[in-house]
Design a protein that fits this description.
The protein has 145 residues and is α+β, with helices and mostly antiparallel strands. The protein has helices at residues 3-14, 66-80, 111-116, 122-139; strands spanning 23-26, 33-40, 43-50, 88-92, 97-101. 35% of the residues lie in helices and 21% in strands.
Amino acid sequence: MTEDAGILAGLRRMGLAGAGSPRLVPLTGGVASDIFRVDAGGRRFVVKRALAKLRVAADWRAPIERNAMEVAWLQTAAAIVPGAVPAILGHDEATGLFAMEWLPPDNHPVWKAELHAGRADPGFAAEAGRRLAERHRQLGPGLAA
C-alpha cells in the first residue's frame, strides 16, 4: 500500500474522502507526523498522521497510537476554550491519522515562521498565555501537567 493509499483508506473510514480522489498537499513542519492539506468533496481540511520513526538525525521511534492523545487533548481544549484549537473532524486509529479543520495561513500564521522572520506580537503572546492558563485552571491540579 502506498503512502497516499494509506491516507485515502483512513479518509474513507472517517467518511471524509468525498466522491472523487482527494488532493493531498504536503505541509511543512512535521517532525513527528506527516501533515497534509486535503481538498475533498468540496471541503478543505488537514490530516495529520503520526510517524513511527521521527524525522531527526537520531533513531527516535514512538508509537503511532500517541495520535489518540493529541485528538483527546484538542477536544478537551476546545471544550474549555471554544475556538482556541482546530475542530476535530475524524480519527482513524488504524492508521494513526486524524483530520481537523483547516485554518488558512493568511488568518492564522504559523508562529514558528513569524518568529523566524523576526516578527513577535506581544498581544498575540499574551492571549496565547491567557488561553493556556485558562486550560490549566479548568483542568485542575495534577491534570494540567
